[in-house]
Amino acid sequence: MRLINHIPGKPLAVLLAALPFIALFAAYSIGSDIRLDANPQDKLLPAPSTIAETAQRLFTEPDRRSKEILLWNDTFASLARLLGGVGISALLSLLIGLAIGLLPYARSAMSSFIAVVSMVPPLALLPILFIVFGLGETSKVVLIVIGITPFMTRDLAQRVLEIPQEQIVKAQTLGASSAVIALRVALPQVLPRLISNVRLSLGSAWLFLIAAEAVASNVGLGYRIFLVRRYLAMDVILTYVIWITFLAFLIDWLLKTLSRKAFPWMEAGL
Amino acid sequence: MSFVSVSNVWQKYGNRSILERVNVEIDEGEFISIVGASGCGKSTFLRMLLAQERPHKGEISIDGGVTAKEPNRERGVVFQKYSVFPHLSVRENLIAAESFDTAFGRLSGEKRKTAAERADAMLERIGLNHVADQYPASLSGGMQQRLAIGQAMTAKPRILLLDEPFGALDPGTRLQMHDFLLELRDETNMTVFMVTHDLQEGFKLGDRVLVFDKPRWDPHDPGMYGATITYDFDARDGGIPFQLKEDADVSA
Predict the structure, then answer these.
(1) Looking at the complex, does the CB of residue A166 fall below 8 Å from at least one CB of chain B?
(2) What kind of fold does domain B4-74+157-249 have according to CATH?
(3) Where do the ABC transporter domain residues begin and end (chain B) (predicted)?
(4) What is the band of B55 on the pLDDT scale with cuts at 50, 70, 90?
(5) How much is the pLDDT for B199?
(6) B65 — contact with chain A (CB < 8 Å)?
(7) A183 and B155 in contact by Cβ < 8 A?
(8) Is 80 exceeded by the pLDDT of residue B245?
(9) Which of B75, B81, B137 sits opposite A173 (nearest CB)?
(10) Which of A23, A56, A158, B127 matches a 20 to 30 Å C-alpha distance to B198?
(11) Quick check: B133 pLDDT over 70?
């Protein structure tokens, strides 16, 4: 039988899914063991048990000076920036995307501009943003917005254009105005796409957030990682990386669930 | 004065002529079948009736009105596919036929309730009341087309345009749809234009069958001349031709 026709059974599939995680953990543990054997003071690959202890301390024990738990402060600050930036991008891309997709005038005026803007490397603009918006929250949110809006807008505009012309004509024969076509025909059909766009762009959004926090900030997950880097505190860095990965995964899962609950018609044909 | 009047309509895309000198008068309540070879402009003619396209020259008037610039509630349409809204349930698709004409596309309170009642009555008539809360994607092709026809009728258009409405259906379903359409027609006395590939279907359903073809043909430049109505058959009473357009007036 051909390889493409071999399908794993349910228990095997679960095992296969777990395998890469186990392999990674094993490889790390072995590497850590070898280094710690040679030098118990080694900081580069702390033992998994050390990371667990550090994680427990970071999540529960308040800082001695500020009496606050820094990890939670960092988490809330970063999430506020991330969700603010992604939220603004989603709204902007939805409005501009609908306009480009539905209105020939907006399409003529905006589509090449957006195509060019989406080619600008956002991180190269970071110094300009710090100069224009200062070192506070605004510049970090704006970096995320500039980074992900053009791509989301282009995709949404394309999706609006892909709505069959028959539907648009049909809506007109039912007396729908341009606004009603935007609200009742186009918008509901691109909302699922907007959510999948947000899911796709969250990776870039995290990248821009951590980059901005690393350069200039006084709180935030990215800031903390780059701060403790100076002391080679790998246990703290790894805890933060695992925590960020978990947050990203959680947000992605929430969006996926929301999409499935909110748009039952998407799955009606399956 | 006839109900729909098409006078001296020409259509061309760039240098390519599609239709030329199309003249036809339609009475209210007539069922017009439009047949012809592929690419002979019958769908273009339907799009002009729909006002999705404007004629290059000439007038199309419904009940004495002027040539429309864009599609409106006077014209109902059913396409071969994509005629219903996939994100609305079957019942909401019918309510949309009333609510889309408002400022925000929604009805509320008492109005929505009576619209829903009318939608349910229509569902009963088109035999879809058992799937009222499902989405179109879970319906069969025939059911989707029944819904599309019901939706178009709910808006109470002056003329109903059908663009190969049964083209994607299997033969059995197609026959059921014929009966359904004839029944609906007897009840409403709607003026209907139907483009079809199927001559038999055209003659079975139509009162008149219009045939589109190119009367003039330039072998060096196929896009030189457009098509026009070359035959206009009376399809009632077994389809005895009542009019044969004189070749003289077109082959000049």
Answers:
(1) yes
(2) Rossmann fold (3.40.50)
(3) 4-239
(4) confident
(5) 85
(6) no
(7) no
(8) no
(9) B75
(10) B127
(11) yes
* Domain with A166 in it: 77-233
Q: Which residues 111-130 of B have a C-beta within 8 angstroms of A?
A: none
Chain B residues close to A162, C-beta within 8 Å: none
pLDDT at position A181, please?
93
In a domain, A242, yes or no: no
Please spell the DSSP secondary structure of B130-179, one letter per residue. Answer: GGTTS-GGGS-HHHHHHHHHHHHHHT--SEEEEESTTTTS-HHHHHHHHH
Q: Is B81 on the interface with A (CB under 8 A)?
A: yes
Q: How far apart are CA A123 and CA A142, in angstroms?
A: 11
| Residues of chain B found within 8 Å of residue A167, distances taken between Cβ atoms | 82-83, 85
Please report whether residue A247 resides in a domain.
no
- In a domain, residue A32? The reply is no
B85 conformational bin, left if phi > 0, alpha if psi -120 to 50, beta if neither: beta
Closest CB to B105 among A173, A184, A269: A184
Portion 8-27 of B in contact with A at CB < 8 A: none
B238: amino acid identity, one letter:
G
Quote the CA–CA distance of B247 and B37 in Å, as a whole number. Answer: 19
> How many Å apart are CA B93 and CA B213, to the nearest integer?
37
Test A170 with B79 for CB contact under 8 angstroms: yes
Q: Has residue A37 been placed in a domain?
A: no
Q: Along chain A (270 residues), what's the average pLDDT of each consecutive run of 10 residues?
A: 92 95 95 91 88 90 84 92 94 94 94 90 90 88 92 93 92 92 92 90 92 89 90 90 94 91 71
Q: Which amino acid does the sequence have at B136?
A: P
3-state SS track over B154-165: HCCCCEEEEECC
Average pLDDT, chain B: 84
Residue-wise DSSP of A107-176: HHHHHHHHHHHTTS-GGGGHHHHHHHH-SSHHHHHHHHHHHHHHHHHHHHHHHHHTS-HHHHHHHHHTT-
Residue the block writes with tokens 């799937």: B131
Is the pLDDT confidence value at B251 over 50? no
Domain total of chain A: 1
Interchain contact, B155 vs A185, CB within 8 Å:
no
Structure tokens at B173: 């379903």
Show me where the domains of chain B are located.
4-74+157-249
B 169-188 near A (Cβ less than 8 A): none
Min Cα distance B88 → chain A (Å) is 7
Please report which helix (H) or strand (E) contains residue B228, including its range.
strand B228-234
Note the pLDDT of residue A80: 94
Instruction: Identify the weakest region by mean pLDDT among A3-7, B38-42, B123-127.
Output: B38-42
